[in-house]
What we know:
The protein is built from six helices and twelve strands. The protein has 253 residues and is of the alpha+beta class. The protein has two domains: 2-214, Immunoglobulin-like, CATH 2.60.40.3880; 215-253, no CATH class. It is globular and about 80 Å long.
Amino acid sequence: MIRLLGPLLLAMLLVAPASAERLVSQLSNDSIEITSSFAGERMTFFGSVAPDAGSDQKFVSGPFHVVIVVLGPTQNRVAREKTHNFGIWLNTDKVEFYNFPSYLHVLSSSRLSDIADVTTLTTSGILPESYTLASSTGDWWKTEIFSRELMRLMSKDGLFGMQENGVNFLSDNFYSARLTLPSNAPPGPYIALTFLFKDGNIIARKSEGFSVRKIGFERFIALAAVQSPLLYGVICVILALFTGWLGGALFKR
């Protein structure tokens, strides 16, 4: 899973802040199974803020803020620009983004601008814009335009989202949050990064992984398309011809 997260996430996970507080967190699901009737899955994130192990501190004092970043499998994603030329829509420009998450959702206990400054949020990989820094072009203005359009399209499909005030503190040190994964959530390894903030600084962080995977006939089809693409294509053509012939024969009668 770590290999898929890219250099930015790896650096985030390796660097742990020194603090007298620690996060104790948990996920409601560690595996989500996709079938033909899959219509999405609700997940619950919960945890508490406790004194660090070995600390003389018996209690923790806030106020605290919690930000949870849920990331799907990373991949190189291409954003293309279409223009209308001579009556035909053509792809005339493109920007490729490296190690871009196929799913990203941010939940926070307050407005991000009230939790920390932009630099902290960006370097920690909390802002969606953090994942558009590595691209195939050196033109920052072009990257900015294409990245915003890419995020808009993914938000429209339910693959990008942000819920400020999506994390609720049920007491001074216990929090919970809910997230519904969409029905089109890409299969693969996911990771939930939880950040604990105090006075605008990250004082603790934790990561939990879970998986989204296809089972049954859907898994067989997905594996066949990847492992045996030629055979998969031939079978699809045969099935299409047979279905067309069968439909014609039935309606002819």
